[in-house]
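For reproducibility, we list the full input for the heme C complex.
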Amino acid sequence: MKNRKSIASPFAVAATYCFLFSLVLWVAVQGVEYARAQLVHQPVPRDDATAAAAFEAIVPVLRHPRCMNCHSSGDFPRQGDDSHRHTMQVRRGPDGEGVNGVRCSTCHQDHNLAGLHMPPGAPDWHLPFPAMPMIWEGLSDHQLCELFKDARRNGGRIPQQIVEHMNIPLVLWGWDPGDGRTPVPIPRREFLAKIQEWAEKGAACPVDASAATSQTLGF
Ligand code: HEC
Ligand code: HEC
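The corresponding predicted structure, in tokenized form, follows.
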């Protein structure tokens, strides 16, 4: 009995020290992690002018035919840099995927097919649903920005989710649209940085020239 204790106790002491040391180390590591997380997640102060300017900066992409061909008025997609109506009677249909035999996925795959006038493609290639058609055509910059912020019209998204949506393959397709198609104008990295800046600085919208005039005139 006495013998066993004398062997066991140095182990017990060593184990206890070991445990205490690990505990202290763990607490220290957690502390550093926490401090770092605090630094990283510092809320960015709201800055309306910068947010609105960031939105203005990405408008040339939003209004580009690569985006507008699915976000224009009418119950059909459009094609080409002149945004002509999609050939072959293609229509939006009840779920944005076309009607009956002419479903988008009949021709469009999850990648571009090589060659001029071959169907472009990206995962989930379809139009927005008719109940929430996300039509940008005819909107001023201010109205387009308000649409992006309106959960009832944008697919239930908060601004940070609009940022995330800009990173999905269907949107990123605009930078790699397949043979013979002009890509959207602003470098992808810059575009994503701007939309992020817009959201984190409070997602303010640019004031339209017309809106500014009516304000000055007191309408
Ligand atoms: C092939 C058709 C197609 C193309 C091309 C396309 N979109 Fe869309 N877009 C959709 C569909 C469908 C939705 C609805 C998806 C959802 O709600 O999940 C959508 C929704 C959106 C939304 C969120 C809703 C809104 O309107 O506020 C944004 C932002 C958006 N698209 C950006 C873009 C940008 C930027 C481009 C061009 C680089 C682009 N899209 C090109 C089909 C398209
Ligand atoms: C019968 C085959 C077919 C079907 C069905 C079809 N498309 Fe297309 N689509 C094409 C072809 C081919 C092209 C390329 C035309 C070209 O480059 O001249 C094209 C081009 C497009 C473009 C133009 C891209 C650009 O910016 O120029 C969009 C947008 C588009 N289709 C959306 C759709 C959507 C949305 C659906 C379903 C509602 C659909 N298409 C159904 C064959 C089809």
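The CA atoms of residues 61 and 184 lie 5 Å apart. Confidence is low (pLDDT under 50) at residues 214-219. Both points were considered when choosing residues for closer inspection.
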